[in-house]
């Protein structure tokens, strides 16, 4: 198949790379084409460009877009100064960046980066950012150049995404992904592969259950972010993976009413910083009712509930919830409050019906106490129910064991080494226990 050069490439930059004499050719098994050897060249660290399509930074990019108020920050001119400065800021602020710089200074660049024919980094963004920081900020002259493998000039976007998916499998690359950013990559592949989780799993060299789980969790985060109307971003929920894992898993095959109830309780609990170990006790059909009851017991939260009802009547919060949860999902008591609280940043002041304002942090703190109380009540009820069921469950096990004894006893008695005396003692013990139980 003949591949034509990409006319969208910056030909001046392409020509610069084309003129570089490769120091060697390196086999890259992750490159999807049959010809997997790529030329390695040395280029100035300030010349290469960071990839704004990097899935490792998707959540962080959304935060930068929100801060700048510029929806096309990374798409209008991906190689321009605004997008590149923002992407560099993201890379240098990621966890472990200082350690990465120290390692590069001690050991140097151990693996070449991978760039497109116009010098855009497909792999090695963080390492290159670290080298650039060492060169410009720390004046370490050995970091002036970066070793890069150059992709063909006709490389297509789909091939670059496939390459990233292959590379992120390796441990060294995978550590650079947050679960949300990995889910963004899965979501893109899922849409591209005809919404077939099997095909996505094969692309990711993973199993269907894992990619589906990440995709489902991301959909829940999408809903909460949409509900917040810009007050919250995907990156804000990176630390809440366990809560979204349990939520997505529980509601996957539940009726709409129960799914909505549990989702509302989990969303409000996540915003209020309730530990997922507490929230898991609210995986029940009446979760929203339990939480609402505890909220109504707190006099300090009554003005907030009134404000939520007023806001719901005045705007489209309920319409958004209907869109997110489905038109057939019955209204839950928490939805009005959730719509109000989600749309507030923690530092904002929430307006009340009487004209006063209350700190959103204060409201979230009160909500946390109410949700924890509801979760504790649910846990106690579950323990009580378990205690009620325990005797019957245990007697079923005893009956099963006695039936097994009845089957095995004749065979055992037929053996020469069988001793009837200890067996008789055990039978007397059983009879005694039965008499005690009947007398309780």
Report what the structure shows.
The chain is built from 19 helices and seven strands. It is α+β, with helices and mostly antiparallel strands. The protein has a domain of 147 residues. The protein has a five-stranded mixed β-sheet with strand order 1-2-5-3-4. It has a two-stranded antiparallel sheet with strand order 6-7. It is flat and about 95 Å long.
In the predicted model, the low-confidence regions spanning at least 5 consecutive residues are 1-5
Total of DSSP H or I helical runs spanning 4+ residues: 19
The main sheet comes to:
5 strands, mixed
Query: What would the principal axes of the Cα set say about the shape?
Result: flat
Helix/sheet category: alpha+beta
Rg, please? 30 Å
Beta fraction of the residues? 5-15%
The largest sheet has its strands arranged as 1-2-5-3-4
- What is the CA-CA span between the terminal residues? 84 Å
Percentage of helical residues?
A: 55-70%
> Secondary-structure element sequence?
HEEHHHEEHEHHHHHHHHHHHHEEHH
Annotation, overall tally of beta strands: 7
Mean pLDDT: 88
């Amino acid at each position: 198949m003949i591949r034509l050069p990409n006319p969208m490439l910056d030909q001046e930059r392409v020509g610069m790379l084309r003129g570089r004499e490769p120091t060697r050719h390196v086999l890259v098994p992750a490159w999807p084409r049959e010809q997997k050897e790529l030329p390695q060249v040395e280029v100035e660290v300030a010349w290469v460009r960071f990839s704004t399509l990097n899935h490792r930074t998707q959540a962080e990019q959304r935060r930068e877009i929100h801060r700048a108020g510029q929806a096309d920050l990374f798409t209008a001119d991906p190689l321009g100064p605004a997008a590149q400065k923002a992407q560099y800021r993201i890379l240098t602020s990621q966890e472990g960046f200082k350690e990465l710089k120290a390692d590069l200074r001690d050991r140097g660049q151990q693996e070449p980066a991978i760039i497109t024919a116009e010098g855009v980094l497909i792999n090695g963004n963080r390492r290159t950012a670290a080298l650039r920081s060492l060169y410009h900020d720390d004046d370490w002259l050995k970091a002036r150049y970066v070793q890069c493998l150059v992709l063909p000039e006709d490389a297509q976007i789909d091939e670059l995404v496939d390459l990233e998916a292959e590379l992120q499998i390796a441990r060294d690359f995978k550590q650079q992904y947050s679960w949300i950013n990995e889910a963004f990559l899965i979501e893109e592949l899922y849409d591209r592969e005809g919404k077939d989780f099997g095909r996505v799993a094969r692309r990711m060299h993973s199993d269907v259950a894992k990619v589906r789980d990440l995709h489902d969790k991301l959909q829940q985060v999408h809903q909460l972010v949409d509900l917040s109307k810009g007050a919250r971003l995907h990156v804000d929920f990176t630390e809440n993976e366990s809560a979204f894992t349990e939520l997505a898993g529980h509601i996957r095959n539940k009726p709409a009413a129960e799914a909505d109830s549990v989702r509302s309780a989990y969303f409000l609990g996540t915003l209020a910083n309730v530990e997922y170990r507490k929230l898991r006790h609210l995986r029940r059909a009446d979760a929203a009712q339990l939480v609402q009851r505890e909220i109504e017991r707190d006099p300090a939260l009554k003005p907030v509930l009134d404000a939520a009802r007023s806001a719901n009547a005045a705007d489209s919060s309920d319409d958004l919830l209907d869109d997110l949860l489905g038109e057939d999902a019955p209204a839950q008591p928490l939805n009005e409050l959730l719509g109000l609280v989600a749309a507030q940043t923690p530092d904002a002041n929430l307006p009340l019906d009487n004209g006063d304002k209350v700190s959103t942090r204060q409201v979230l703190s009160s909500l946390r106490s109410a949700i924890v109380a509801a979760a504790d009540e649910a846990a106690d009820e579950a323990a009580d129910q378990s205690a009620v069921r325990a005797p019957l469950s245990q007697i079923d096990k005893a009956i099963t064991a006695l039936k097994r004894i009845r089957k095995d006893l004749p065979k055992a008695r037929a053996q020469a080494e069988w001793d009837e005396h200890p067996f008789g003692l055990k039978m007397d013990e059983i009879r005694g226990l039965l008499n005690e139980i009947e007398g309780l």
